[in-house]
From TrEMBL:
Keywords associated with the record: Signal
Signal peptide bounds: 1-20
Pfam families: Flavodoxin_4
Segments forming domain Flavodoxin-like: 27-178
GO molecular function: FMN binding
Organism: Bacteroides cellulosilyticus CL02T12C19
Name used for this protein in its record: Flavodoxin-like domain-containing protein
NCBIfam families to which the protein is assigned, alphabetical: PRK07116.1
Length: 178
């Protein structure tokens, strides 16, 4: 009987340790949203993961004229044409060291992540963190954005991202469990 009691106590201790470790794992859901679409998806990701929501904001907000992709001289067109462009952030994410997992969300521009995502990644220390991308788009998949960011920041620990166009809360729950 003593052996059985000891065995049961040991199993309970292991379970409690696993639960405590899971709860101590912190998630950051960082996102850039020019029109509000990606923001809506980010809020659901934060809700289902229990993550902290952080908006990646440019120092100078984008106007509708800045976002006019038909105009080759618009701000977004000029930034996307220059791979070295790094729009300035209005602020840096605080306490990045506290997070184990970082979801990064953005609208897809010209089949890529907007250059402000590069600025965000370069502004912090992501070593040892799991980085997961999510995006919204009017017509592109996330694959090229993922490929380019993973190539540029090959030292980061990436997990498969997802395009969240029309994703339901249940879809996002299933994706984040993986």
């Amino acid at each position: 009987m003593k052996r059985l009691t000891f065995f049961m106590v040991a199993i309970m201790a292991l379970c409690l340790t696993a639960i405590a470790q899971k709860q101590s794992s912190k998630t950051l859901v960082a996102y850039f949203s020019a029109t509000g679409t990606t923001e809506k998806a980010a809020k659901v990701v934060a809700e289902v993961t229990g993550g902290t929501l952080y908006e990646i904001q440019p120092a100078k907000k984008y106007t509708s004229a800045d976002l006019d992709w038909h105009d080759k001289s618009s701000r977004s067109s000029v930034e996307m044409a220059d791979a070295k462009s790094r729009p300035t952030l209005s602020s840096k994410a605080e306490n990045l060291a506290d997070y184990d997992t970082v979801y990064i969300g953005f609208p897809i521009w010209w089949n890529l992540a907007p250059r402000i995502i590069n600025t965000f990644i370069e502004s912090g220390d992501f070593s040892g963190k799991t980085v997961i991308l999510f995006a919204t788009s009017g017509g592109s998949s996330i694959s090229n954005s993922e490929k380019e960011l993973q190539k540029t920041y090959s030292n980061l620990k990436w997990q498969k991202g997802k395009l969240l166009n029309g994703a339901t809360k249940e879809d996002i729950k299933q994706w984040t469990k993986k």
